[in-house]
């Protein structure tokens, strides 16, 4: 049976039951929970420092009204980072390579920011559709363009995360397959290919973390416009 390179992105099932729910719940099991002790271990201390620093940087440009989103955005970033990094391990499934899952994250959160803007400051929210000083003949065209760009935002969020992770996993699999095939024929080339594979894996670790941060950062920017 010849397997396609894209088979790794299929949602795994066991006895007809999709295992994507297990993959989504696994990160919360791996993340250590704080204790009631006065002194925590190094892992908990590092985790608390990272979460505090990230939350401070994320909420810095946002008004006080948007600070209610701090827990939600921080939890979302931790979930995405953990899912992306676990997907780089062998024989694992990456749920964030599924466009449906990423759109399920992007659309409700983007829609919530738009609804908040329409409810709190409808004039300013609608004013984003028409830049100040626009010539009168261009007003209808710009309103259509800005409306389309507004509704493309959640699609861009989901597609960006899906495309970056999918491309990285495909590239890793292609180079690994090339190194395995070249090993008996040209060992030197296979070793060089393995070095490239190792460097690419390090790059994908960085991409996994950066893409999770970019996803949450763009959501915070959308929130900033509407708060």
TrEMBL record:
Pfam families listed in its UniProt record: ATP-synt_A
Transmembrane segments: 12-31, 69-89, 101-118, 138-159, 171-199, 205-223
MF terms in GO: proton-transporting ATP synthase activity, rotational mechanism
Reactions it catalyzes: H(+)(in) = H(+)(out)
An example Gene Ontology CC term for this record: proton-transporting ATP synthase complex
Cell location: Mitochondrion inner membrane
Record keywords: ATP synthesis, CF(0), Hydrogen ion transport, Ion transport, Membrane, Mitochondrion, Mitochondrion inner membrane, Transmembrane, Transmembrane helix, Transport
InterPro entries: ATP_synth_F0_asu, ATP_synth_F0_asu_AS, ATP_synth_F0_asu_bact/mt, F0_ATP_A_sf
NCBIfam families per UniProt: ATP_synt_6_or_A
Record-given protein name: ATP synthase subunit a
Phylogenetic placement of the source organism: Eukaryota, Metazoa, Chordata, Craniata, Vertebrata
């Amino acid at each position: 049976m010849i397997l396609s390179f894209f088979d790794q992105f299929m949602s795994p099932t066991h006895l007809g039951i999709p295992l994507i729910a297990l993959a989504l719940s696994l990160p919360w099991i791996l993340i250590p929970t704080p204790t009631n002790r006065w002194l925590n271990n190094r892992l908990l201390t590092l985790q608390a420092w990272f979460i505090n620093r990230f939350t401070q940087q994320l909420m810095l440009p946002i008004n006080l009204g948007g600070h209610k989103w701090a827990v939600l955005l921080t939890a979302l970033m931790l979930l995405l980072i953990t899912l992306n990094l676990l997907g780089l391990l062998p024989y694992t499934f990456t749920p964030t390579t599924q466009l449906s899952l990423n759109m399920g994250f992007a659309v409700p959160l983007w829609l919530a920011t738009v609804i908040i803007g329409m409810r709190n400051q409808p004039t300013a929210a609608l004013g984003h559709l028409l830049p100040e000083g626009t010539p009168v003949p261009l007003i209808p065209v710009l309103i259509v363009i800005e409306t389309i760009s507004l509704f493309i935002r959640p699609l861009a969020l989901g597609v960006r995360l899906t495309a970056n992770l999918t491309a990285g996993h495909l590239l890793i699999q292609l180079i690994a397959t090339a190194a395995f095939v070249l090993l008996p024929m040209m060992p030197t080339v296979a070793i060089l290919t393995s070095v490239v594979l190792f460097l690419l894996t390090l790059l994908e670790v960085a991409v996994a973390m950066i893409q999770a941060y970019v996803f949450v950062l763009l959501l915070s920017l959308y929130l900033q416009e509407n708060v």
